[in-house]
Amino acid sequence: MNIFITGIAGFLGSNLAHYLADRNHKVFGNDNFIGGYKDNLSKKFIFYETDCCDFNNMKKILKDIDIVIHCAATAYEGLSVFSPSFVTKNIYEASVSTFSAAIENKVKKIIFCSSMARYGEQAFPFTEDMKTIPQDPYGIAKVAAEQTLRNLCDVHGIDWTILVPHNIVGPRQKYDDPYRNVLSIFLNRMLLKKPAIIYGDGTQKRCFSYVDDCIRCIEQTIENTNTSKQIINIGPDEEFITIKELANKCANVTGFNSQHIFHKDRPQEVKFATCSSNKARKLIGYKTKFNLDKSIELTCEYIKKRGPKEFDYQLELEIVNDKTPETWKNKLI
Fold it and tell me: Which helix (H) or strand (E) holds 29?
């Protein structure tokens, strides 16, 4: 089967590409390297250095593709409050361009990786039938992309599935990005002999998904008819942990035990966020194979092997005021 993965040099896209290529699928993909590493690529798949927002190029490279898996995203939830133009362009416009090109090429199915940000601040664990009430521009753009996908696919007769991964961790994640990937930021800082930086009091709670568990779920949606026109949370609902506890675990794994540094809360951050995995268990046989401790250990091993790096502030802040985190304004991470 010819499978096209957007964001193929990124964290989720590259892991998925390697996994599917190893299972004899013919894998293609594109990336603009905003959030990926070139060494995530492989000769196992065909790569195009093309931005998803470039509709004409996307239309050309999606010719003869059976399945499109849209992983590409500027997944900057917190940053989207301060760089909303950049983030939403690379969520909504990039998604609509990809969907339109895929539909024009009459693909069999589009699988869209959305975000837990769709749920916002409400009762948890989040279930797929809940109303979407995103709290930031990133989440708003993801929900708009979901709605557009469903509308276009239903009009033009294309199958779709929306997957909702959350807090994915593991090898190939960009760990020198100061704006996202809390686990990788903690580990990279500690390997650089710097303490964790925590926003607020650290009592925010999350569940973390090891990447291999997520890509198995994505594979299941390719041909499983149970997933047709479904929204499915993928990732664990076990080990609901505070950010402060996560930092402590990272300190234990790296051997760098120092007092954490606390900064004021980031605007619009959801306090408690976790998704129910019950629908994924029912439709695609989801099962967590990697617990949190193992996930931290494997992520740390990857950063050690590739080498810890100073953080790269390549993205500009569009809105700078008294609400903008000092860690970003003054490049403190």
Answer: strand 26-30
